[in-house]
């Protein structure tokens, strides 16, 4: 009968919204339903990620599945949860009201989600309750009277095991069975008037949920003791913190050493490609644009992909395993000293690879001020783009000596630069949150989910999506900036018979010379000043720019280090390192901040305060080093 | 708040303990949520706090057990709450009153 009004293609797809508590396996269900046919975008006007995917039901009906951010209540507390509320209530511009809401529940954890289901039910849209991870419930001897549960809440109930693709057919059949009703009701746009429930109403819903649970769910015969036993170790005040640091240690080993061969490979491929393209073209503007602009530009973005993928693989694995909430628990007090929320830990950690995914990850922080404070300090964490600069300067100026018998001096300096970054992050966060913004302190209230073995397919899919997002969003910004920087460093071109490097005649050269007097007090010569201009695109570009200024081939870093060692004084080199601890110039980060905060105010504040810190840091370093006679 | 009840019928009335003063391993039931008791300095208002605690399952009658305490200042606190585990700060834990028997 659903076909009565015409052929399948005429009917617009059903809109199915997945709603559920965090950790309910909602995204796993979404992945199982939509497979590879999904699209990640942003909701119009907000920065919340929108995940949708198209599928065809057994009866041939097309359905658009939307994975809404996890929540405990329609009373939204974060931008993510606001999207869930607004989509469910049909309040979001450009997002039609869902035809049916699928409330996804962790079968082992029904109390909270049942209350949410009652809240959703009250909205008046058709709803289906999906009892996910049903296999675990069965294994534990939890008995759910599905039929009566369904009668009691007045909505169909299906059982699913998303990671094993079980129950999906039943869920879709349930949608099929009512699709005609959904379609007919669509134009009515029926939503019950909704307002935030009061404490008394929440209590009443809890009592109702409790009553339903008592009547139709028998508690597990074999409760999960594995989580308790694991927590006894991982949440132990002392052992737990050590374990956390061990996890972080492995993670950073992986990010920095496992990624290296891949990064070298990517680097070599782009150099080869540049060389091959260069060899085919005559020397001139076109070649320079293709090789130094386009190929080098794309290469400078793609080279970070291995690190970002490995970092996100760890983050997603830890998240799916259930550890991330524990990390937030262990770190909350320490983050709190700096005025940050426990949840800021994960975004800041990600910023060690690149501030862009870190800033994107701040979306999990509910409170706007907590979130902005975290965004503002994220670029102070030493990102991997600073590594090429650090390695170059350290190789040129810091002797390969052993200090105290065991420590490598170069490694020690590297460690010191990282430590300075972390310290600066915490100090600046403290100043933001405790001095300028002594506003509301958001409560730390976080569920510690049961430990679960992550599903490899889910992890792979999510990691890949992160990579795509990075390439698409960060990549396009960085690429455009690289082209602008190429233009600045190429035009105007050097006159015939010029003796100085070509960049010296360009706009970048002029700018570098113009700002050099400003940078003289911090010990920068004009070459360093010029290198800062292309370095605006991405920090590591400064290395290539130094190569250009000193007319040393970019690939020959050993040669560049030797040149620098001969040309720079040690105080200048140290000042350059100090500058890069803060280094305000990463246009891609500023672009992401603009998008995430929806205002130009924050990127401007960020640029200015980081510039001030970089200047101050380099000034102090230069003068102290000089006074010390280095 | 009183932990020591000197009234003659102390034995008959179960003792009320606040979550922020409960020892590791304490197990009981939530007897009431008193968000008004949390000092208002800088925190979210008590009406909002009460609703958030309720939404996370801190509701009268729920079984609760103190599972873990943080390293610094024994903060935050992780509890078993019915069939879930939840962590919260000592500051907000002050709003949660518990007793050894179900109400």
Count of domain modules of chain A: 3
Strand order of the largest sheet of chain B: 1-6-2-3-4-5
**CATH homology superfamily of chain B:** Ferrous iron transport protein A (FeoA)
**Would you count the extended β strands of chain A for me?**
12
Largest sheet of chain B: 6 strands, antiparallel
H/E element sequence of chain B: EEHEEEHE
Radius of gyration of chain B: 13 Å
Helix content of chain B: 10-25%
> What is the 3D form of chain A?
elongated
Summarize the structure.
The complex is a heterodimer of chains A (630) and B (103). With 630 residues, chain A is an alpha/beta fold.
Q: What can you see in these coordinates?
A:
The complex is a heterodimer of chains A (630) and B (103). Chain A is α/β, with parallel strands linked by helices and 630 residues long. Chain A folds into three domains: 8-224, Rossmann fold, CATH 3.40.50.300; 239-384 and 407-439, no CATH class; 477-627, no CATH class. Chain A is 59% helix and 8% strand. Chain A is built from 26 helices and twelve strands. Chain A has helices at residues 26-34, 79-88, 110-123, 134-139, 146-153, 168-177, 179-186, 199-216, 226-234, 239-280, 285-302, 305-321, 324-337, 345-350, 355-360, 368-377, 386-397, 409-436, 456-490, 507-519, 526-532, 541-549, 557-567, 570-582, 587-597, 601-627; strands at residues 14-20, 38-42, 49-56, 62-67, 100-106, 127-132, 143-144, 157-159, 217-218, 402-403, 407-408, 445-447. A seven-stranded mixed beta sheet of chain A has the order 2-3-4-1-5-6-8, with helices on both faces. Chain A has a two-stranded antiparallel sheet with strand order 7-9. In chain A, helix 17 crosses helix 18 (409-436). The longest helix of chain A has 42 residues, at 239-280. By secondary structure, chain B is α+β, with helices and mostly antiparallel strands. Chain B has one domain (16-99): SH3 type barrels (Roll), CATH 2.30.30. Helix content of chain B is 14%, strand content 30%. Chain B has two helices and six strands, in the order ββαβββαβ. In chain B, strands 1-6-2-3-4-5 form a six-stranded antiparallel beta sheet. The longest helix of chain B has 10 residues, at 46-55. The chains are: A alpha/beta (630), B alpha+beta (103). Chain A binds chain B through residues 72-73, 75, 77, 108-112, 115, 196-199, 202-203, 206, 210, 219, 227-228, 231, 235-238, 240-241, 325, 328-330, 332-334, 336, 342, 438-450, and chain B through 42-44, 47, 49-57, 59-61, 67-73, 75-76, 78, 82-89, 91-92. Strand 12 of chain A pairs antiparallel with strand 5 (84-88) of chain B, so a sheet runs across the interface.
């Amino acid at each position: 009968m659903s076909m009565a009004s015409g052929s399948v293609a005429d009917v617009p797809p059903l809109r199915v919204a997945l709603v559920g508590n965090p950790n309910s396996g909602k995204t796993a269900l979404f992945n199982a339903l939509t497979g590879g046919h999904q699209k990640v975008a942003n909701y119009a006007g907000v920065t919340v990620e929108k995940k949708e995917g198209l599928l065809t039901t057994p009866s041939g009906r097309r359905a658009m599945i939307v994975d809404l951010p996890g929540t405990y209540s329609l009373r939204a507390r974060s931008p993510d949860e606001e999207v869930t509320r607004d989509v469910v209530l049909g309040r979001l511009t450009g997002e039609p009201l869902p035809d049916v809401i699928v409330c996804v529940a962790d079968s082992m954890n029904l109390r909270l989600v049942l209350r949410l289901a009652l809240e959703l039910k009250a909205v008046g849209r058709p709803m289906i309750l999906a009892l996910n991870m049903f296999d675990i419930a069965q294994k534990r001897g939890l008995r759910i009277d599905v039929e009566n549960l369904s009668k009691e809440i007045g909505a169909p109930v299906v059982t699913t095991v998303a990671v094993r693709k079980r129950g999906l057919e039943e869920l879709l059949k349930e949608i099929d069975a009512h699709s005609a009703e959904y379609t007919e009701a669509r134009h009515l746009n029926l939503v019950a008037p909704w307002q935030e429930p009061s404490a008394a109403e929440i209590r009443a819903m809890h009592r109702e949920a409790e009553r339903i649970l008592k009547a139709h769910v028998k508690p597990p015969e074999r409760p999960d003791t594995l989580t308790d036993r694991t927590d006894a170790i991982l949440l132990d005040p002392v052992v737990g913190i050590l374990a956390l640091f061990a996890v972080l240690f492995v993670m950073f080993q992986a990010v920095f050493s496992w990624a290296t061969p891949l990064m070298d490979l990517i680097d070599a491929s782009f150099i080869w490609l540049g060389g091959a393209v260069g060899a085919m073209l005559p020397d001139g503007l076109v070649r320079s644009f293709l090789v130094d602009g386009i190929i080098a530009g794309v290469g400078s973005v793609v080279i970070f992909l291995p690190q970002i993928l490995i970092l996100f693989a760890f983050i997603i694995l830890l998240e799916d395993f259930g550890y991330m909430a524990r990390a937030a628990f262990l770190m909350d007090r320490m983050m709190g000293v700096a005025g940050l929320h426990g949840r800021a830990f994960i975004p800041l950690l990600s910023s060690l690879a690149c501030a862009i995914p870190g800033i994107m990850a701040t979306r999990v922080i509910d409170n706007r001020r907590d979130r902005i404070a975290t965004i503002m300090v994220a670029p102070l964490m030493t990102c991997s783009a600073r590594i090429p600069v650090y390695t170059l300067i350290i190789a040129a100026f810091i002797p390969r000596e052993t200090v105290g018998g065991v420590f490598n001096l170069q490694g020690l300096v590297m460690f010191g630069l990282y430590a300075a970054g972390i310290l600066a992050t915490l100090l600046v966060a403290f100043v933001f949150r405790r001095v300028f913004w002594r506003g509301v302190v958001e409560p730390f209230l976080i569920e510690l989910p049961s430990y679960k073995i992550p599903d490899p397919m889910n992890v792979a899919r999510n990691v890949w999506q992160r990579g795509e997002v990075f390439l698409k969003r960060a990549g396009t910004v960085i690429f455009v900036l690289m082209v602008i920087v190429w233009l600045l460093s190429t035009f105007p071109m050097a006159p015939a018979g010029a003796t100085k490097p070509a960049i010296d005649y360009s706009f970048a050269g002029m700018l570098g010379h113009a700002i050099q007097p400003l940078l003289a007090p911090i010990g920068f010569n004009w070459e360093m000043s010029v290198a800062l201009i292309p370095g605006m695109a991405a920090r590591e570009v400064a290395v290539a720019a130094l190569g250009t200024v000193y007319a040393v081939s970019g690939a020959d870093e050993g040669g560049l280090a030797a040149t620098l060692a001969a040309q720079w004084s040690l105080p200048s080199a140290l000042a350059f390192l100090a500058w890069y601890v803060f280094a305000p110039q990463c246009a891609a980060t500023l672009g992401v901040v603009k998008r995430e905060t929806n205002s130009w105010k924050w990127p401007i504040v960020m640029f200015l305060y980081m510039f001030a810190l970089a200047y101050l840091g380099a000034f102090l370093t230069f003068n102290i080093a000089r006074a010390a006679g280095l | 708040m009183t932990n020591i009840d000197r009234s003659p019928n102390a034995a008959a009335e179960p003792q009320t303990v606040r979550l922020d003063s409960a020892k590791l391993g304490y197990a009981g039931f939530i007897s009431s949520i008193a968000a008004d008791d949390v000092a208002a300095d800088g925190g979210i208002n008590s009406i909002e706090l009460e609703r958030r605690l309720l939404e996370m399952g801190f509701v009268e009658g729920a079984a609760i057990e103190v599972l873990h305490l943080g390293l610094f200042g024994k903060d935050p606190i992780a509890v078993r709450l019915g069939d879930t585990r939840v962590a919260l700060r000592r500051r907000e834990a002050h709003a949660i009153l518990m007793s050894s028997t179900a109400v």
